[in-house]
Amino acid sequence: MVRLITHNLLACHVKNCTVNNFPLEFKNVQLEIREAEFNPDFIRGFLPKLEWKALVDTARQLGDTSLPTEQPEMIDDEFLQNLHHVLLEIHVEEGSMICNNCKHEYPISSGIPNMLLAEHEIA
């Protein structure tokens, strides 16, 4: 499933595509919101692993403006709930992810991204 928690870890891996290859940009997506059990300890623990600007920009691209531009120093329940929603409840069901550098397109079908490359694209 393509959720923003996963998307925040993905970069283009086409041979010689090593700059401006993160984050992948969503294109022509169909979203589905699915409730997930809230676990504040998990969200708090995952926070240091996030590329914050990429997450906020992507969430806004998908229509969610609940996260602040800068990661707050004081973490409250409302912030954790909003972050939980963005990371775990927004599902990209269809569409594609495109590299800003080489323009390679990774299709998404039934919530599953196809990250496979053709032989000539592999490093």
From TrEMBL:
The protein's matches in Pfam families, at most eight in alphabetical order, are given as: Trm112p
Q: Which CDD domains match?
A: Trm112-like
Query: GO:BP terms for this protein?
Result: rRNA (guanine-N7)-methylation; tRNA methylation
Instruction: Give one GO term, molecular function aspect.
Output: protein heterodimerization activity
InterPro entries registered for this protein in UniProt: Trm112, Trm112-like
Assembly mode: Interacts with TRM9.
Instruction: Name the family.
Output: Belongs to the TRM112 family.
- According to UniProt, the name of this protein is Trm112
Q: Which organism is it from?
A: Coprinopsis marcescibilis
